[in-house]
Design goal:
Belongs to the RecF family. The chain is an alpha/beta fold and 368 residues long. The protein has eleven helices and 15 strands. Strand 5 and strand 6 form a beta hairpin. Bound molecules: adenosine-5'-triphosphate.
């Protein structure tokens, strides 16, 4: 599901850029502060409705501009567009029609991002890891988004009752039943994909030329005790939940853990090894989605950071197998282009764009 044409306007230091993208590899090279990450951020906003650097739309909109626009045409013939204005308003469109939700955008353009924040898969909270698995399940299981939404509605209702302190048993029982019903289904969908995810990551890690100090174990915790159904577990934890004012168990507390010899993987692996683990996790997610639906687009901010040349090539090779297209940034063109040159066609002929002061220009052979 590659992007063919991309238009970005009023986005950080990019005043206006209109690009014809290569169907496989696109490299954006330029000095610090040139606008390379901003371009990836714009594509990310198009596919998710939000930035990966800021929660505030205002900080993303170019100073002195009234708003930002990102628009793309996909090779499937779809078009996506998003607009945000400084007054807080905005709209998103799919094929010129209003998008119903950000998950509708996400569903049109499955995206994988690797940047300096990607290590939070290992050293961040459980929510980050849960979302890894959920991204995969969302794109593969059409029922997941609805079950998860129902679960969250019931969770908000139960938490509201808990915060009142004195509980009407009938009222809370109704919400607990709905919570348990959706929660069990969310868990079944997650568990159904977890095995596949786990073996895809392990298979990729076996391809690392330098190996790792030991096998990485990947464990899934569903968020409540194994031997109890969710409805019973909710009833049992009710009293404690009241004193804390929120629901302490359930799929919203699930986690995916990466360990090595019983220790959190990040306590043992070097920074480069951690990055390759993160790349393997992201590639495995893309593989699963491409097996069942479509190949995602990869955004890779500063591929050479932390990786030696061999590992950069391994990751480039993984991307060529599991992604439809990749947008990569790098400071120095020679170094950014090298990992792709040894791949087979068409992955070995990247389109190079030079980025400077927010201006993005394709190398002459690829100009519009
Ligand atoms: N709202 C904004 N309006 C205008 N310029 C902005 C805005 N927000 C950030 N900038 C500037 O836009 C530039 C974009 O930086 P960006 O992070 O895209 O650079 P980069 O090319 O990825 O650099 P690096 O190699 O240092 O990561 C920076 O110079 C930044 O100061």
């Amino acid at each position: 599901m590659a992007l063919t044409r991309l238009l970005v306007a009023g986005f950080r230091n990019i005043q206006h850029a209109e690009l014809l993208l290569d169907s496989k590899v696109n490299l954006f090279c330029g000095p610090n502060g040139a606008g390379k990450t901003s371009l990836l951020e714009a594509v990310h906003m198009l596919a998710t409705g939000r930035s990966f650097r800021s929660r505030q739309h205002r900080s993303v909109i170019q100073h002195s501009s009234r708003g930002l626009t990102v628009f793309a045409e996909l090779e499937t013939g779809y078009s996506l567009g998003i607009e945000r204005l400084t007054d807080g308003s905005g709209r998103a469109r799919i094929n010129q029609r209003p998008a119903e939700s950000s998950s509708q955008l996400a569903s049109c353009l499955p995206l994988q991002l690797i940047n300096s924040n990607s290590f939070d898969v290992l050293d961040g909270g459980p929510g980050v890891r849960r979302r890894l698995l959920d991204w995969t399940v969302f794109h593969v299981e059409p029922m997941f988004a609805r079950e998860w939404k129902n679960y969250q509605i019931a969770l908000r209702q139960r938490n509201a009752l808990l915060r009142r302190g004195k509980i009407a048993v009938d009222a809370i029982t109704v919400w607990e039943e709905q919570l348990a019903h959706s929660g069990e289904r969310v868990n079944i969908l997650r568990e159904g994909r977890f095995q596949e995810f786990q073996s895809a990551v392990s298979a990729l890690l076996c391809e690392l030329p330098g190996g790792l100090p030991g096998p990485v174990e990947i464990g899934y915790r569903r968020g409540w005790r194994k031997e109890t159904d969710l409805c019973t577990a909710l009833q049992e934890s009710r009293e404690g939940d009241v004193s804390l004012g929120h629901t302490r168990i359930g799929p919203h507390r699930a986690d995916v853990r990466f360990t090595l010899a019983g220790e959190p993987a990040q306590h043992i692996l070097s920074r480069g090894q951690q990055k390759m683990l993160v790349c393997a996790v992201r590639t495995a997610m893309a593989e699963l989605v491409s097996r069942h639906r479509t190949q995602p687009v990869f955004l890779v901010d500063d591929l050479p950071a932390e990786l030696d040349e061999t590992n950069q090539q391994v990751f480039a090779h993984w991307i060529s197998r599991s992604a439809s297209q990749v947008l990569v940034t790098g400071i120095e063109e020679g170094m950014t282009i090298r990992p792709w040159q040894r791949l087979e066609a068409p992955w070995n002929h990247p389109r190079v764009f030079h980025v400077e002061h927010g201006n993005i220009n394709a190398e002459p052979s690829a100009a519009l």
